[in-house]
Amino acid sequence: MTKKIIFQKARLFDGISEGLREDMSVCISDGKIGQVVKGRSSVPEGYDAIDLAGKCLLPGLIDTHVHATLIGEEALPLFLAAGVTSARDVGGALGAVLDLRSRIADGTLLGPRLFVCGPLLDGSTPSLGGPAFEPMLQAVPAPGAVPEIVGNLIAAGVDGIKLYFSLTPDIATEIIRFVDKRLPVTGHLGWTHSLEAIEAGIDGLEHVWISPYNEFCALDMQFGVGASMMDPTFWTKTLKGWEEADLNAGLATQWFDSMVEKQVHMGSTLDLLWTSRSGIDGAMKDPDRKLIPKVVRERQRAIAEQMGDRPDWDIHNWFFEASQGAGALEKHQEVTRLLHERGGIVVGGTDCGAIPFPPPGFSLLREIELLSDSMGAVGALKSVTSTAARYLRSEDEIGIIKEGNRADFLIVNGDPTSDVTDLRKLEDTYVGGVRHTQSELRALI
Ligand SMILES: [Zn+2]
């Protein structure tokens, strides 16, 4: 049983309003949010009162793109320490992610409430290699294999379906058709172009950098069937393609129109290029660097042996240099700005686990900073609260401070709706009405 508490004099960001609601009272009991009202100085019978004068109360953040099995379960409290109370795992071995989801749900493990997609549904040519990544892949060799493979995932209780890079259009569209909106389908697309998937009815796209790349680059810079992400030149070529991209070209315009018309969710992961903004020196001096989980550091150590001794071995993405990508990042931010402005949907995601830096949880704070540049502070906050919750079909549980939702929320000593870096002034993370202080969470990591 969790306590009954009334939070008074809160500055409330409820996840859906355009700004703060001042002097609000929020009740919680049995792990859920109760009445949310203006003013109210009386304390209901049986409730403890907490005065939040000067502080903000806002929904726990949602990261729509994580790889929890690559992080290690002992590092899961990192998410809560950064204010991320829910996360969607978009690629991991089915048994492992289901196990994490249930142990977090029953309180055995401390971590964000997990939504899982199970494995990356890939084509016959594996898009990733190596001992950490291979167990995350599930090949779907032909359209005829879809009912058994995808049917089994749905029967196992996944929350979504994730299409991966080497799926050809015939198989990708067959999966979308087979799922038939029973669950949200998203894709880190490659061999299938995003316009084909949008036409077929996909619900989300992952990575501004990759999934819509072919709609934005010059025609002679496109990649297609046979492209490989394991080839380092793939990444440098796509960065160049983005730098030179014309966001007003014909295919790009068609992409924006289709995304808006079909209300497809664009998962951002702008943080993949965070180091191009901070610079490698900035990243190496960044206090978040010491939060890189042990499992990730060990994986990086093995990669470092192959790439030679370098001081940034722990944060280096083997596939591109930190000095690259600033021009591409600007274009990615411009894409999110234009999509948002035109009535499309942007949701925040980070790919934490798959990349070493920025670390889990804190990578979403970086993401929000990058999104805030293009969508404003409130737009960025919505993309990681109410909008993300709607995408996960859980707006009546998380992402919005309203009566009946889970008491997953943050107490911040600042105002993130005017400056998102104030999220760093997080004091308490409430999960299902249970308070976790910043010092408690820091001690766990
Ligand atoms: Zn990913």
Task: Break the fold down into its secondary structure elements and pairings.
Layout: E1 5-12, E2 21-29, E3 32-38, E4 48-51, E5 56-59, E6 61-66, H1 77-81, E7 84-89, H2 94-105, E8 113-116, E9 120-122, E10 137-139, H3 146-156, E11 161-163, H4 169-179, E12 185-187, H5 194-200, E13 204-206, H6 213-216, H7 232-243, H8 250-262, E14 265-267, H9 274-285, H10 294-307, H11 326-341, E15 345-347, H12 362-383, H13 386-391, E16 409-412, E17 426-431, E18 434-437, H14 438-444
Parallel strand pairs: 1-4, 1-5, 6-7, 7-8, 9-10, 11-12, 12-13, 13-14, 14-15
Antiparallel strand pairs: 1-2, 2-3, 5-16, 16-17, 17-18
Helix pairs in contact: 3-4, 5-8, 7-11, 11-12
Bound molecules: zinc ion.
